[in-house]
Amino acid sequence: MTDPKPAAILVIGNEILSGSTQDANIAFIAKRLAARGIELAEVRILRDNEAQIVETLNEMRPKFRYIFTTGGIGPTHDDITAECVSKAFGVPHEVHKEVEAAMLADYKKRGIEMNAARLRMATMPRGCSLIANPISGPPGFRMENVFVMAGVPKIMQGMFEDVENMIEGGAPTLSRTVKCNQKEGDIAAELEAIQKRYADIDIGSYPHFFQTPSLSLVLRGKEQARIDAAAAEVEAMIRAHGEEPVAG
Amino acid sequence: MTDPKPAAILVIGNEILSGSTQDANIAFIAKRLAARGIELAEVRILRDNEAQIVETLNEMRPKFRYIFTTGGIGPTHDDITAECVSKAFGVPHEVHKEVEAAMLADYKKRGIEMNAARLRMATMPRGCSLIANPISGPPGFRMENVFVMAGVPKIMQGMFEDVENMIEGGAPTLSRTVKCNQKEGDIAAELEAIQKRYADIDIGSYPHFFQTPSLSLVLRGKEQARIDAAAAEVEAMIRAHGEEPVAG
Hints:
2 copies of one chain form a homodimer.
Chain A: E1 7-12, H1 14-17, H2 25-35, E2 40-46, H3 50-60, E3 67-70, H4 81-89, E4 93-95, H5 97-110, H6 116-120, E5 123-125, E6 129-131, E7 140-143, E8 146-149, H7 153-163, E9 174-180, H8 184-197, E10 202-207, E11 215-221, H9 224-240, E12 246-247
Parallel strand pairs in A: 1-2, 1-3, 3-8
Antiparallel strand pairs in A: 4-5, 6-7, 7-8, 9-11, 9-12, 10-11
């Protein structure tokens, strides 16, 4: 279960780091990547700080197969992601003529005025390709292995439909959950022994408070038969502790 | 608003990166830090992967004033945070006698058996100090600027009460929100001009979909009078666009 070149997410925005906004994009992208068989190895959340974003992009670009960014591509002064991507790649940051033309046509229809702020949303790294925005306004873009998307969840989710046409996965990651009321400390040694016999399966143990069943054991892997075999051992172990496990 | 040595959060756990669990700890810690006047500059979310955690800890330790970790300190095989901290600091990973004694006393009362798995929760980097756990079971610990807490939100929040006794902040970060229905692109230039006049205030612009008012302008800073002055300019600008702004 270890991909030599997994994917990463870069969430950009002061609003997440101030606690005023709860991120909703990480879990969405994580689930879609798992379904595509692309391993997600790391998420970083950064402020609207150019130096920090450029440095982080350049540190991450060679390490990850794909980097998905969310946030910071609107028309206001705090939207600096596109400029940061141009700087990270060392390419001119320029108006994308095709995007500008599409925006002008759309604005004409809707009676919206083009101005310098809105034109920033058409300003992109030279050489990028576009990520369609089926929800609202200007597109995102792709620059090599970096996919730049909006931060508003509805728009990001719309853009991700197009991103899925551009990324290659492997076998989807499958999972199965076994629930019980065992205390983690009572079954940890036996669980570890099962984990050791199934190196291709990740077994995670997640206790819940004020919930019944109080423990979720999550098995993740590529082959359903192997997951089922490991889950059968987990279930047998729970039965040996005198409890009937529940499917999660 | 730029702290030369801000804080960071390190969230550890496959369950967040698989999308199966929505993180609830980042927003909690972020809000508490803001109230304490400690700037949060970065969050990283990592898998249960020893090499990646050790490397990340050692990369982050010199860069940040405080690093708050959540997750990975339970008794099961996938809980590897404590070992990783010992490795990152290059110190022996050993049973903390005081923690072991407290656990034994507690387990005796509750009729729980001590075993190798549970003893792992008392095994910590040599030289660490303890973070009280008022909710359930073994404590977290602090090693220099690294604060190691549980991942279960209730327990993490309980531990954070004690962490707050150990960290030093500055003036709390204050914020004020002005809401309106302006389109971002219509007010971006004027908003940027206000931002330039108030370098000590961070002005963020956050559009909402399917909500009224549809735009939140969030002003954050250390001095209420400066925030109020900037907010008054933002409100005057919105009125000049023919709309009465709303307090957020």
